[in-house]
Design a protein that fits this description.
The chain is mostly beta strands. The chain has three helices and 32 strands. The longest helix has 10 residues, at about 5-10.
């Protein structure tokens, strides 16, 4: 270990330096960002996160982790603050065997990556194989032809407890864009909101690869409203799995909530315990090509069109507020208002539509995935009444005998 490495690192991060000294092939060491500046690393690949002034910036940390071997630093802690970027941040690894974790260490919403500096650019470019994890960051104001906030190439990306908002794509994928057959996204307890694509996919575009969305909210995103553009919230062209999640208030010409086409010849979208509500389009859920299966999910209250189009496969216990989805499997309900409340926090980090008393969704769902909670997570069990509720939210069935506050039935006319 050289003297420059020891002196400069221990001066600012004694514990990190100690961890690096003892790091083994299976251990992980940490860079801690200490500046909101967007300056580059002065000597990329020397194992020291330092710009020309001795600061460890987020860009410098990514440059060092990108050049490091699997046995070197692969965790970046990002404290509370707003980090304004002047160009895209490349989270690409020289060693595909190495995982990379970018962790916001401040309170929820307190660590913001803002791409409003310099020329228009996206926020993160993910690639290089392996697993990249992004936790507890807000990513905003990115702008790129595809993937306004994040582009995922040959890599696995886990996004947890994040907010992706107010990003823009001049072509496709206002929020997130998957563009490689080996790309894999897991979106967990996160919100994708108010992103815009001039073309397809206001929120997320799975052009190639796989996306698994759980306990998340895809809300108020917009794709192109002129003919030919699809997927206000999500456009799937490969493999999409959505569970315990809300898709609401998005807009596009076709498939305001979710649209599915077939870029791979085997495209599939699987929706389980999902609430699709109030999306603006010719239809909220549009199967253009491929296979879409739906189970224990709500599709309701379309804006400007119908709930569904295409030969969508029901696996049962779905609720269609009209009758356009063709749900005829056991437990399916059609032409019934699910009585959804407005989007709200409801005790969670992601917005949900609560079920109001009397909703037909109460106690009429199933839980094929064995989910322990509803979309809101810990403290909100997946079953609270006689059975699971349809959709992403588990409500409370009101006992009609006690609804008026007395231990007798209501009087006639009340």
């Amino acid at each position: 270990m050289n003297d420059r490495y020891v002196s400069r690192t221990t001066a600012r991060f004694p514990m990190a330096a100690l961890a690096l000294f003892f790091v083994g092939s299976c251990a992980a060491a940490t860079f801690t960002v200490d500046s909101t500046l967007d300056t580059p690393d002065i000597i990329i690949g020397d194992g020291i996160c330092s710009d020309s002034a001795g600061h460890c910036t987020l860009r410098a940390a990514l440059q060092e982790t990108g050049a490091a071997s699997a046995s070197s630093i692969n965790v970046i802690d990002v404290p509370t603050g707003t980090y304004v970027t002047g160009s895209v941040l490349n989270a690409k690894k020289a060693d595909a065997a190495k995982d990379l974790s970018i962790i916001g260490t401040g309170p929820a919403g307190g660590v913001i990556i803002d791409a409003s500096g310099g020329n228009a650019h996206g926020i993160f470019n993910i690639g290089g194989g392996g697993l990249t994890s992004i936790t507890n960051l807000t990513m905003q104001n990115g702008s790129a032809p595809t993937g306004g906030a994040i582009t995922v190439g040959d890599a696995n990306l886990n996004i947890t407890l994040c907010v992706i908002r107010d990003n823009h794509a001049s072509i496709d994928g206002g929020g997130i864009y998957l563009n490689d057959g080996n790309a894999a996204l897991k979106l967990d307890r996160s919100t994708v909101t108010h992103n815009i694509a001039v073309g397809n996919a206001g929120g997320i575009y799975i052009r190639f690869g796989t996306a698994n969305i759980i306990n998340s909210a895809i809300i108020n995103n917009q794709a192109g409203m002129s003919s030919g553009f699809a997927g206000g919230g999500i456009l799937n062209g490969a493999t999409l799995v959505v569970s315990n999640s809300t898709v609401s208030g998005n807009s596009a010409a076709y498939g305001g909530g979710i649209a599915s086409l077939d870029n791979t010849g085997t495209a599939t979208a699987t929706l389980t315990n999902v609430t699709i509500n109030g999306n603006n389009s010719a239809q909220q859920l549009h199967l253009i090509a491929g296979l879409v299966t739906v189970q224990s999910s709500i599709i309701a209250n379309p804006v400007g069109g119908t709930n569904c189009k295409g030969p969508i496969t029901s696996l049962g216990h779905n609720l269609d507020s009209a009758a356009s989805c063709g749900f005829i499997t056991a437990g399916d309900i059609k032409n019934s208002d699910p009585l959804l409340a407005q989007l709200a926090g409801n005790g969670s980090v992601t917005p949900t539509h609560a079920l109001l008393p009397g909703s037909a969704a109460l106690d009429h769902g199933i839980n094929p995935l064995g989910l322990k909670t509803d979309q809101r997570g810990l403290g909100f069990p997946r079953t609270t009444g006689a059975d699971v509720d349809i959709g992403a939210f588990e409500g409370v069935q009101v006992d009609k005998i006690f609804a008026n506050g007395f231990e007798v039935p209501s009087l006639p006319g009340n």
